[in-house]
Amino acid sequence: MKRILILSLLTICVGIFGFKNIEEHPTLEIGSPAPNFNLKATDGKMYSLNSFAKAKVLVVVFTCNHCPTAQAYEERIKKLVTEYKTKGVQIIAISPNDPVSVRLDEMGYTDLGDSFNDMKVRAKEHQFNFPYLYDGDTEEASKKFGPVATPHVFIFDQKRILRYSGRIDDVEKPTGTPKNHDTRNAIEDLLANKTVAISKTKTFGCSVKWGGKRELAAQEKIDWAKEPVSLEAIDEEGIKNLLKNNSGKLRLINVWATWCGPCVAELPDFMTINRMYRLRDFELVTISADKPDKKDKALATLKRLQASTKNYIFNSDDAYKLIELIDPKWQGALPYTLLVEPNGKIVYQKQGTINPQEMKRIIVDNPSVGRVY
Predict the structure, then answer these.
(1) Of 124, 261, 335, 350, which is most buried with the most CB atoms under 10 A?
(2) Residue 275 Rama label (left phi>0; alpha psi -120 to 50; beta)
(3) What are phi and psi of 161, to 5 degrees?
(4) What are residue 206's DSSP bridge partners?
(5) pLDDT over threshold 50, residue 13
(6) pTM of this prediction exceeds 0.85
């Protein structure tokens, strides 16, 4: 737990302050011409600055998939598009993040990473009504703009001169009521041929994952290998308590065995899920269905897979008793997975291997975890 807390604090420090050896790029100054770009979008097309030449106002939003603040603003960006598309305003989004630089412990509020394929999934699922461009391979365009965080808005007039840089509004939580609609106000000023009253604000969100942060992502893997792995015996009462779930956390329980090929093959997916959400109100528990005398073998498998989770092995040879304890509806085939809300409500049951992407979505959309702060 101490190691996890240190990792959490490290992540926060990186997000807010940055490190000396991590590249940062100056933010485009008000009055500067719009940098050109040529980027692929989730709709399969390539877009450049000239693709939007007819727009009276061009709004460029740097955003991404994984950031909770970015996700919190998705619907508001869509609303702005709907309100202004007939008024000559073009809104586009660019993801500046190098997907390899995103640590798993930075993905606790999402079910998707920042790869181009993940962007296509997000755009389709959330029905984005704006071009969503990918700049994660080279980040050349993003470096010219110099976004501080996601989201970060840059608004250009008809001559493509930067007139506004900053936030969308001053309340990131979707259920909150903003007092200052800075992006909307800047658009309105430009449409009215006025000088933008407030041309620059600070931004709030996740730091941009420049390619220079790959070292931190690589260090994360080194740290995983150092985490202790243990396996404890659990009795009937212990399993009943696991299912009652008085932890206050969303609990994912996976029943597996060393002799079950699909079980062992999917354990790495569970470890990824655990590393994504373990700093949230979530925990993963594994229960080995191996016989008690095979404990050493089960532990060796868990160590090989760096399974630093809560791991148990049933202290009885009676597999049928384990089945009835876990779930009377379970027919007995392994693997078997349950998702249990605080106070014992089972919200997911699966005999057989899980769909990892589906499981991530179920976890992050559960009220016990959630996508936003």
Answers:
(1) 335
(2) alpha
(3) -105, 135
(4) 150
(5) no
(6) yes
